[in-house]
Structure prediction request, 163 residues.
Amino acid sequence: MGNDISGDDAFGPMLARKLEPVLGKFAIDAGLAPENWTGPITKLAPQKILIADAVAFGGNAGEMRIIDPENLANGLPATHGPGLGAFIEIILTRLPNCEIKILAVQPAQTGIMKPMSEEVARAVDVISAEIERAGARAEGRGEGSPCASETRSTERDGSRVGA
Prediction:
């Protein structure tokens, strides 16, 4: 999710576009209104959802963390309004066994008509390459769709991702 014309807030849409050849219909650019995608996502019935978004968590620009959605509710500011919380609540109501995580990147700049920072552009490259590698490993093991694969992280929640 995110806004293509707001600097680093384009992290989610850019990552979705970059992963579409690998993940197909499972790579969704929900833009600024993820709650509008609850119907299509419910029909896909995923077991896991990874939401990519710019989140000001106080890290270095381009740093990524995997965050549990409950932690956003506890004060970590996203670059969006209540749409993300509503989206998560609706999805979990419809798909109670779905695991949702947020892939957060620390933005450097999110102003309207600003370009994406080099740090966040590198983060898109790092995480997309990691997901592509995980998908290739899953397919090599006969596990089917690469969207069932997970990327590595050093810890589950609040951890740095990529390297």
Summary: The two ends are 23 Å apart (CA to CA).
